[in-house]
User: Which sequence fits this backbone?
């Protein structure tokens, strides 16, 4: 019989630094934090350098692997080689204010243009009032005003004089004007006096007054026309004065921007607008200037402001932007609104840039999950990438959430490389379900969670830890502490030949170890501090495990760790609770009886078992039939169950245990309860690897340890899992002392021999198993079932005949 | 010591007559009157003059008026005119009652029917006479308006005793304003310089920014032009002989369309 007992040395791979001697991490040099990710790094480099349309990048990796750090580092280096992009400003569209104009400037020039415009407004604010407050202007306006007034006054006076000749005066009433006859003392005659007059006199007065009133009406009707004329004259004067004050200042500015046709066009429009709205520059003083209406407006100069969306004046490289909250507005930009007179309004000065504006000409890094969770963000991003133009739209308006003034700013050309960060599932889902995804994100950068643990990698890993220590400003680590972290790194990936690249886990471990070093007043992080950090993390998370093990210890959950029982075996499963996982022993039992070759998986029947578990059961069913009933009917029926399991179970890691327990039940050969079994089997009876081997072994060890180690207990694991072993030190220690045993098996027969302490037995030339072997006993029982069944069928046939 | 000594008006209870016509909104002028009366410890007699010419005209059977805004002709009704004037009088009465309650001043109101100028100038034993009369306007042409207290104060000074009193009253009326326009009624440059010096000495201990306008002509064309440009809260002048006072007060009231305060 092959020795399946594992050497204690194979249970844990200790870290050694051959050729790299150091006392603390202070003596180690920094290393590129992107370790062992050659494929991903090369993919990102390829993606960011290839300028083609749709060559955006999706970096695939679970969270915490440091892909953001890696991407930032790589993109940062590339960005330094790229030119600083142009700047974009939004300015007023004087003809269509709701469609602000976009102006493009070389880096730094946008800021200067903004300053130039502010300077222009400042100069105009002085020059225009000065021009309009000058004596010359005042004299000319007064002249025009007086001319208009005098024209009215003189015409009214003519009428007054004409009336006076007829002993009539023009008097003012509370609401208008009236003509009244007067006596020799220039007093208005009263009704009595009027009655005393002859009829002829009365008629004459009435006639005169009627005539005068007609003339007055005619005259008053002319007044608005005259006033309009006066107003036109004043407007022309204002325009003349404004042009004198404005033109030379704007021409000066135009000369500075001769190379920018769009800017020149804007300045020309601004010039016209300023001249037409010169009143904006006159300080609001009531009736400061005749005929100039002064509307109430918060800041009339805002029309001439420059909304510089992104300022690259201080930049040394192309922008690299990471948008942590990629919602629609943060991505595409938004319009702010202000309340004015009870309603909301906006204009080009309230356009706020989004991440796409900030990253335009450079790189934009986004978290795919966050992006997909934000309403309309993903669809909008795709639309923009397809059109290569940023168009800001008010989401509130398109959803009819507000109905107020909105803008349609001119589109800005987009040239950006998007790097999405997300896990693999997200990538595959998008690839499968979103037809546009592959067109827009052609480069996948797949980050590995682990790297091979060879000598070179171990040395690099030590430097990697030293880099984190310095970056996080932690205490230096001793060589032993580094070794322990590296060993723990292997345990994290569940493989003694690999190292974890999960940056967050490692970084967290170092930070926590540093805490314990400080608490323990250690100048450096020692091995004990690292171990304390590992243990304390488990302690913080293992409440459920403790309760479960307590239940087993108290006999509430029934697990035997001694003795032999037929049809009963200890299986092992893994429970994952957040970041903490642990092994859970489970009792698996089987019953067998005469039947038609069916194995009833009770878990499956009750819909508590998953598809993979069912597949495992079908495989073992097939194995039994193939091995023991090749030439006879398979006349057995078996039922299989995980005892005291009330939740969903899945996976095939218990199929070896299930196979053994069914065969035990058939043969009625008892199985050792001091052993637990894990592993899956194939149809040929070979044992295949399973996951969580370390947790499973430790789980059974903890149960046995609590009950008291007898020196007989142990775990049977697949041989192919040996390389994954990175067991806890107490388990390794117990194994070294012979108090606990780990067996690695390659076939079902090896497992059966350990469990039954019997020879499994092989078929001889006649195809028969030795009678006293385990397989012989199984074979005999199955043959017995077949005989009974045949007899039974004969009797039935006889009865029918 | 200055030769322009400060003058104390020796009287236990001064009297201020505020003459109002039926065309203006009088709230601003009544506020000015009340503030001044409080400082001067004066009683206020308000005189609302119903224009007799208007009443007579409205009584004529053919009387018609042309509306200022619509330029439409319509019948003049004596009842409507009388009622409008009564309404105006009631409004003034209400304003005065309110001011009396606030200031605890003695305030009375008389309503008379007559000619505004004659009624105003016939008042005797009055220390302060405040006229508020609408001047002849161009039909519909907007007048220079503004918040009453933001408009500058004007004072006419000719070196007489009453003019000195006018200066003192103007000083009291400043109410936080620092600008005072002083019209110097003079015949020569030397006289102007002398009067200016007196005014400067008078306000030497006050923080006042004085703007001087020297005027020789009787109808003050230069000053009127400036008042039109800059506005006027109230024009303060000293009472001279009745004819001159009446002429000057009416000139400013009608041509500059500003309230006039005559100081005795």
Assistant:
């Amino acid at each position: 019989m092959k020795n399946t007992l594992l050497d204690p040395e194979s249970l844990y791979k200790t870290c050694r630094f051959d050729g790299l001697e150091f006392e603390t991490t202070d003596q180690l040099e920094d290393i590129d934090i992107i370790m062992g990710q050659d494929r991903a790094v090369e993919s990102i480099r390829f993606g960011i350098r290839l300028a083609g349309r749709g060559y955006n990048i999706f970096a695939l990796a679970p969270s915490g692997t440091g892909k953001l750090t890696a991407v930032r580092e790589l993109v940062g280096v590339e960005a330094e080689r790229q030119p600083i992009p142009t700047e974009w400003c939004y300015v007023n569209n004087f003809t269509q204010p709701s469609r602000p104009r976009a102006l493009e400037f070389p880096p730094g020039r946008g800021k200067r243009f903004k300053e130039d415009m502010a300077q222009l407004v400042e100069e105009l604010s002085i020059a225009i009032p000065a021009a309009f407050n000058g004596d010359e202007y005042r004299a000319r306006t007064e002249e025009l005003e007086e001319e208009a007034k005098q024209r009215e006054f003189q015409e009214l006076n003519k009428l007054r004089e004409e009336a006076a000749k007829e002993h009539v005066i023009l008097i003012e009433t509370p609401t208008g004007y009236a003509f009244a006859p007067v006596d020799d003392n220039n007093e208005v005659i009263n009704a009595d006096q009027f009655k005393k007059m002859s009829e002829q006199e009365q008629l004459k007065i009435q006639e005169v007054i009627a005539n005068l009133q007609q003339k007055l009406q005619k005259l008053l009707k002319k007044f608005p026309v005259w006033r309009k004329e006066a107003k036109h004259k004043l407007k022309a004067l204002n325009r003349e004065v404004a042009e004198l004050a404005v033109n030379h200042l704007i021409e000066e500015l135009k000369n500075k921007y001769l190379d920018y046709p769009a800017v020149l066009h804007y300045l020309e429009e601004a010039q016209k607008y300023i001249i037409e709205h010169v009143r904006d520059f006159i300080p609001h003083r009531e009736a400061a200037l005749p005929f100039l209406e002064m509307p109430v407006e918060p800041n009339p100069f805002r029309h001439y402001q420059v909304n510089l969306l992104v300022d690259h004046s201080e930049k040394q490289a192309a922008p690299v932007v990471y948008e942590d909250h990629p919602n629609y507005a943060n991505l595409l930009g938004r319009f702010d609104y202000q309340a004015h007179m009870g309603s909301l309004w906006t204009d080009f000065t309230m356009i706020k840039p989004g991440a796409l504006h900030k990253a335009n000409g450079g790189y934009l890094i986004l978290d795919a999950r966050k992006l997909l969770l934000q309403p309309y963000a993903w669809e909008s991003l795709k639309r923009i990438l397809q059109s290569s133009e940023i168009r800001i739209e008010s989401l509130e308006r398109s959803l009819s959430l507000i109905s107020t003034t909105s803008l349609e700013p001119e589109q800005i050309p987009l040239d950006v490389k998007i790097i999405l960060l997300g896990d693999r599932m997200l990538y595959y889902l998008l690839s499968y379900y979103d037809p546009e995804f592959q067109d827009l994100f052609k480069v996948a950068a797949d980050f590995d969670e682990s790297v091979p643990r060879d000598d070179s990698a171990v040395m690099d890993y030590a430097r990697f830890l030293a880099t984190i220590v310095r970056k996080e400003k932690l205490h230096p680590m001793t060589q032993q502490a580094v070794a322990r972290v590296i060993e723990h790194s292997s345990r994290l990936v569940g493989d003694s030949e690999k190292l974890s690249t999960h940056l967050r886990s490692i970084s967290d471990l170092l930070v926590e170890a540093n805490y314990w070093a400080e608490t323990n007043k250690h100048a450096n992080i020692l091995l004990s501090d690292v171990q304390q950090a590992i243990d304390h993390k488990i302690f913080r998370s293992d409440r459920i495990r403790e309760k479960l093990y307590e239940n087993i210890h108290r006999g509430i959950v029934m697990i035997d760790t001694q003795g032999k029982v037929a049809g009963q075996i200890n299986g092992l499963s893994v429970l994952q609770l957040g970041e903490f996982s642990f092994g859970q022993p489970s009792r698996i039992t089987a019953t067998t009886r005469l039947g038609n070759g069916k194995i009833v998986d009770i878990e499956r029947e009750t819909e508590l078992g998953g598809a993979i578990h069912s597949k495992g059961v079908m495989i073992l069913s097939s194995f039994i039939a193939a091995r023991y009933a090749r030439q006879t009917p398979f006349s057995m029926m078996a039922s299989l169950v995980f005892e005291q399991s009330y939740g969903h179970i899945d996976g095939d890691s218990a199929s070896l245990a299930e196979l053994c327990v069914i065969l035990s039940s058939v043969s009625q050969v008892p199985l050792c309860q001091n052993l637990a079994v894990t592993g899956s089997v194939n149809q040929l009876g070979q044992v295949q690897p399973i996951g969580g081997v370390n947790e499973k072994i430790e789980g059974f060890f903890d149960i046995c340890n609590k009950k008291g180690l007898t020196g007989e207990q142990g775990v049977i694991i697949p041989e192919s899992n040996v390389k994954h072993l990175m067991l806890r030190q107490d388990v390794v220690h117990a194994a070294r002392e012979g108090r606990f045993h780990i067996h690695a098996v390659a076939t079902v027969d090896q497992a059966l021999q350990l469990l039954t302490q019997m020879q499994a037995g092989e078929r001889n030339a006649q195809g028969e198993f030795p009678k006293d072997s385990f397989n012989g006993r199984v074979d005999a029982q199955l043959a017995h079932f077949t005989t009974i069944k045949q007899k039974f069928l004969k009797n039935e046939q006889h009865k029918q005949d | 010591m200055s030769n322009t000594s400060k003058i104390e008006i020796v009287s236990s209870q001064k009297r201020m007559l505020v003459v109002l016509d039926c065309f203006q909104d009088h709230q601003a002028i009544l506020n000015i009157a009340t503030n001044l009366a409080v400082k001067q410890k004066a009683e206020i007699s308000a005189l609302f003059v119903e224009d007799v010419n208007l009443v007579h005209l409205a009584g004529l059977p053919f009387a018609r008026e042309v509306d200022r805004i619509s330029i439409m002709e319509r019948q003049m009704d004596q009842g409507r005119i009388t009622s409008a004037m009564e309404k105006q009088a009631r409004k003034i009465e209400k304003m005065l009652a309110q001011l009396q309650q606030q200031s605890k001043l003695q305030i009375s109101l008389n309503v008379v029917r007559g000619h505004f100028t004659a009624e105003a100038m016939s008042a005797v034993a009055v220390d302060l006479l405040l006229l508020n009369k609408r001047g002849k306007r161009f039909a519909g042409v907007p007048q220079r308006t503004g918040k009453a207290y933001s408009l500058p104060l004007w004072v006419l000074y000719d070196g007489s005793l009453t003019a000195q009193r006018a200066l003192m009253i103007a000083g009291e009326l400043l109410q936080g304003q620092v600008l005072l326009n002083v019209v110097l009624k003079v015949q020569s440059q030397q006289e102007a310089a002398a009067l200016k010096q007196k005014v400067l000495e008078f306000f030497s201990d006050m923080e006042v920014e004085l703007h001087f306008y020297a005027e020789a002509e009787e109808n003050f064309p230069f000053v009127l032009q400036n008042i039109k440009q800059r506005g006027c809260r109230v024009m303060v002048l000293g009472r001279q002989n009745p004819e001159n006072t009446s002429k000057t007060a009416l000139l400013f009231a009608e041509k500059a369309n500003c309230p006039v305060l005559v100081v005795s």
